[in-house]
Amino acid sequence: MLTASHLSKSFGGRVLFEEASLQINRGNRIGLIGANGAGKSTLFSLILKEASPDSGTIALERNVKIGFLPQENATSGEETILELAMGINPEMKEASRLLREHPLDEDPLHHEGQALFAENDGHALEAKAKRILSGLAFGEADFNRMARSMSGGWIMRAHLARLLVMEPDLLMLDEPTNHLDLESLGWFQNYLIHYSGAILAISHDREFLNVICESILQISHRKLHHYRGNYDAFLAQKAARDEQQLAAYKSQQREIVEIQRFIDRFRAKASKASQAQDRMKQLARMVRIEPPEKAESTVHFRFPQPVRSGQRVARLTNVEQGYGSHIVYKDLNLEIERGQRTVLVGPNGAGKSTLLKILAGMLPLQAGSCEHGHQISIGYFAQHRTEMMDVKKTVFEEVMNIPKPVAEQTARTVLGSFLFKGEDVFKPVGVLSGGEKSRLALVKLLLDPPNFLLLDEPTTHLDMPSIDALIGALKQYDGTLLFVSHDVHFIKASATSVLHINAGKVTPYAGDYDYYLEKSGATSEKEALIAPGRGAPLSNYQPQQKPSTQSGGQKMGLKEIKTLRRLEAEKRKATNKERRDLEKEITSLEAEIASLEEEKKRLETLLDHPSSYAEGKTFQFNRELSLILEKLERMNGRWDRLTTTLTQKYPM
After folding, report:
1. Same fold, 2-229 and 312-377+489-528
2. Count of CB atoms situated within 10 Å of the CB of 19
3. What angle do CA 425, 206, 168 make, to 5 degrees?
4. How far apart are CA 76 and CA 227, in angstroms?
5. Mapping DSSP to helix (H, G, I), strand (E, B) and coil, where does residue 4 land?
6. Which residues, listed in sequence order, are joined to residue 344 by a DSSP beta bridge?
7. Which of 159, 353, 387, 618 fits as disulfide partner to 74, beta carbons 3.0 to 4.6 Å?
8. CB atoms near residue 351 (< 10 Å)
9. Could you read off the pLDDT of 310-360 as tens digits, one per residue?
10. Which residues pair with 453 in a beta bridge?
11. 500: burial class by Cβ within 10 Å (0-12, 13-18, 19+)?
12. Model pTM?
């Protein structure tokens, strides 16, 4: 469907790709990962023909339709949310405009709009758009709201809905989970599992990559490296590949040292000068092996710890809170105790962010009371914190502008962990993007933490190393933590208890997220993400999904559906095990082949050395070399058969 061959691209004097190749086939689900600035967005730009490669080609099959969701800043015009979701061609946009601007039946332009709407199969399209919008947590009242009246995050969701309505052959997503809550994320993941087209997604959400992806494409060392399986499989394969690369790198470095030593020793000696010249040519021809990239380190120092608070951190008594006629909480009673590390879960609009604002004192209560305990200091992390920064200060000056300044090196280390590196720390705050300001606010909070932290989606705009840095910081934190997040990896690493919120009711679970999944009655994590919400099962929103039926044509009951799901899960588990076993054996073979290749190279080097002849060891070395060559032939044959089987049975 799409083939990129021998791509090279430089940006700002820095080489991003060099002779990189990529193939995307129909039905592929590929996660694109790499360090910040490695070139992920540039690769997207090349595929979308928004930029041109320095060399190489990108070929796309005729009539292949591509849909792209940017990370942020998708625009909206004079259109409603429903019109934005349906706006997949100019005719439909025009029909929607005519119907909106000429609502009266006697208006000729209204009839023109109706005709154009019908010609483009508008009724089926509208029903599909409404289903998808509902899955992404839009209420029915939102459908006819003007898109520009909603926040940027909701506009991004509407653009995502538009792409899913379009159903392109290749769906390209740049951080698609940034603006989703847990419920919407669960629906979205399930939708993509059943999506008929190919998917290429940039994401820092490990759980999303694990659920969605069947292969991982990593940008590293100016190359595109392909790995079969999801993100966890990538980690295992990359560790094995890095180990092999490190061994090959060390072996080559030893070889270089030996060759250079020979050159240095004999190039001034007339009888050895020609051999020294040969060694110099050998060094010049040698393709240098690069060492594996070092994993970006997380923060490893003690954060300043807050003053110890009283046992009771906060108490809500008979709280009532709402927005206009919409009541969020009525007679809410809740206590937060010192040391709790609690995640708030529940459907969109249930009141998770509202509860954080109440506890932070950001909302005046309509009824009831919110009491804070002894020596409580509150840190509330949300987007509005960025408005409290001094736009004239540099990033570094703003970080040091805290009540208890830290050492300069400490500040620089933490800033680096959150993507402010080198000269970035001297940028004025005023030129930072919204995401950069959010990261800066998070750094300030971590360097001078209060004893009661309230975090609303803290991992948005963070890459994986930064998320790990945040997790590491919170593990050291001695205070009380209450947070909302859609990042399951972050939740599992940070929460020791769960508060489920739905319809104004707060249900505590005195265990971690896995405990919550078990006790909430969900049979799987994906069911738990959606079940507490509108009551709509995931299957209601599956694209082109037929209702489950028995052989007699009757609708299946819940028990039969669960049995079928269990059998399908067992089949997938067996298939995945067979594939993993194949991959494991291939990886093991590759390690053995690499080791034999190194031994072969060593023996060939010895045979080239004059001392081997002088010492009469050439016979022994030739015999060992023959045995290794025979073994390599057998192993390479085995490797060819296994990789062929893997490719045929489990195509990417």
Report:
1. yes
2. 13
3. 100
4. 37
5. strand
6. 499
7. 159
8. 24
9. 899 999 999 999 888 788 999 999 999 999 999 999 887 788 989 999 999
10. 379, 481
11. buried
12. 0.69
